[in-house]
Amino acid sequence: MHVIRINDLTDGRLGDFANLTDVALRRRTEPAGGLYIAESPKVISRALTAGHRPRAVLVLEQWLADLEPLLADVDVPVFVGDSDLLEGLTGFNLHRGALASMHRPELPPVAELLRDARRVVVLEDIVDHTNVGAIFRSVAGLGADAVLVTPRCADPLYRRSVRVSMGTVLQVPWTRLSGWPDGADELTSAGFHIAALALTDTAISLDEFAATAPDRVALVLGTEGDGLSNAALGAADTVITIPMMHGVDSLNVASASAVALYALRTELRGP
User: What is the pTM of this model?
Assistant: First the structure.
């Protein structure tokens, strides 16, 4: 690594870290520029472990020692500055100490992710980055094999998604579907039973479905507020719902994902 101590923000190589709180700007520039932002030494470590390549690193002086073992053999500029200066660049306080702009990995084909999977999660048009990150954390912790996101779903590699997931978006295999619900045909062809989590008159309880769940299940989760589209429900083999109490009809989509994935975890039924 090459440590560069900065006293102003005129270095053009700092552009990756400018205005990180502008969500609309980052949605436009990060995917198009082939980068994403990893925040904190822990997440940066997970990105490096996943084989992702850093383009530049921004770090507070007092956190530099924590990054040195991670980046000692990496050819990357490491910009070091004080808190006020770096906050002026990024738009927020770097209380997690460090940011890295990382080259985006190439997304794998859908068929590759489905080949050996038993549990996959499909995110239909979920727009909140916090929910996307939380779902990835549930997927990692509860043993699902992959995540498929629809064309209009929020970016799993957006800074907030990566942070909320505790870096698990860098561990869980995922890719973006080219179309939806047309993409459901690829799931069906691969032998997956499509289970849509929704409130409908024809839904069966999660308990009932989990008791005799098929070997390969694709759990489909819908956007905040409106839930799954009619087209997604039409493509589903089964609609399931989480039994609720005390007049509450549903959970936040990230919480619902955790409940459903726990009920459907494969070790309940063995190989």
Answer: 0.88
| pLDDT at res. 148 | 98
Q: What are the CB-based long-range contacts (under 8 Å, 24+) for 198-202?
A: 198/222, 198/227, 198/228, 198/233, 198/239, 198/240, 198/241, 199/227, 199/241, 199/249, 199/250, 200/233, 200/239, 200/241, 202/239
Q: Give the whole-angstrom CA distance, residue 84 versus residue 86.
A: 6
Query: Mind listing the pLDDT tens digit for each residue in 131-189?
Result: 999 999 999 999 899 999 999 999 999 988 999 999 999 999 999 999 999 999 999 99
Measured from the Cβ of residue 252, the count of other Cβ atoms closer than 10 Å reads 13
Contact 16, 56 (CB under 8 A): yes
Residue 122: CB atoms within 10 Å: 28
The yes or no reply on domain 110-268 and CATH 3.40.1280.10 is: yes
Q: Is residue 33 over pLDDT 90? A: no
How far from each other are the two terminal CA atoms of the chain, in whole angstroms?
A: 45
**Phi, psi (rounded to 5 degrees) for 186:** -70, -35
Q: Looking at domain 2-103, does it have CATH number 3.30.1330.30?
A: yes
Domain boundaries, the chain: 2-103, 110-268
Peptide bond into 41 cis (omega under 30): no
Measured between alpha carbons, how far is residue 198 from residues 124, 207, 232 in Å? 12, 14, 10
- What's the rounded Cα separation, in Å, for the pair 115 and 53? 27
